[in-house]
User: What shape does this take?
Amino acid sequence: MKAMQVLSLTLLSVLAASAQLLKFGKCPKPAVQANFDASQYIGKWYEIMKLPTRFQKGECGTATYSLKSPGVIGVLNSELLDDGTINSIVGSAKVKNPSEPAKLEVSFFEGTPPGPYWVLSSDYEGHSLVYGCADYGLFRIELSWILSREPTLSEETVEELHGILSSIGLDVNKMVPTNQNETYCAAMNQ
Ligand SMILES: *[C@@H]1O[C@H](CO)[C@@H](O)[C@H](O)[C@H]1NC(C)=O
Assistant: This one.
C-alpha cells in the first residue's frame, strides 16, 4: 500500500513537471518530407516558433547541422540566455531506417536515449517543420519547431506549417515565437 502511494506520488510529480509536454493519447503518424535529402538540409537554421520545452530557456535559437559521416549529421544548437551568455549544445542525428530518411534520431549526451526528429516539411532553402513524439503508456510527449534559413519567416508559410501541425492534432496555440530581433540577438553572431 505504502509503495503504491509513493509510486503514484512520484508519477504525479513527474506528470506535473512535464505538464507542458505530456498529453493524453498516442503519438500520431504524420507524413514526412518525401525524398528528404540531408545534404541539402545542412547549414544554419533559425528557430521561428516552438512548443516550449524545459531544456530551452533562451531566445535567438539557432540550429547548425553538418554532415559528419554517411547517415550521421552533426548538431549544434545555440541560444542566448537572459544573462547575455550563449548556451550551446552539441549532438548528433542519425537516420534509423534508410527507407525513411526524414525520420532522424537526435542524441545529445552519451547514455541518454535519442529523441525523434522528424522533418515533416522542408524546402531546404526557406523553411523546415520539425516534429517529434514519443509514447509513454497512455500519454505522449510532443516536440515541434518551425525553422527558417532567415531570422524571419513569412506569415503565409507559418500558417501553412500550422495547418500541417493542426492536421495531426497539435494545438498550434501552444507554440511560442522565438525572439530573433537582430539587435537583441547580436551576441549570437560574434
Ligand atoms: C529589437 O530590440 C531592440 C533592443 O533590444 C529594440 O530597441 C527594438 O525595438 C527591437 N526591434 C523590434 C522590431 O522589435
Observations:
- The first helix runs from residue 2 to 17.
- Residues 53 and 120 are 19 Å apart (CA to CA).
- Strands lie at 22-24, 43-50, 59-69, 72-80, 86-95, 103-107, 115-122, 127-136, 139-148, 176-177.
